[in-house]
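Take just one protein record:
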Amino acid sequence: MSTQDKIPMDEILPHLINCLEICLFEIDEARPKDREHAAFIKGERIAYVECLEILQQCEDYKKLGLDYDIEARYLNNR
């Protein structure tokens, strides 16, 4: 990818957040086949949540749409 093809940070961060949220939605739709698969799904969910929480540390987190309790939305009652 050349320098001209690079995406500015203010455009890539919302895209990254959207991808993480879509992955979390898809995980909610997943039906574990067995305990091992259920453990994998749980770990995957935690990893995506941690990524969103890191992004929430940005000073413009409200502009990025991350002004909510990420753990409450994606981890509680799961």
The longest helix spans residues 9-29. The mean pLDDT is 92. The CA atoms of residues 20 and 48 lie 6 Å apart.
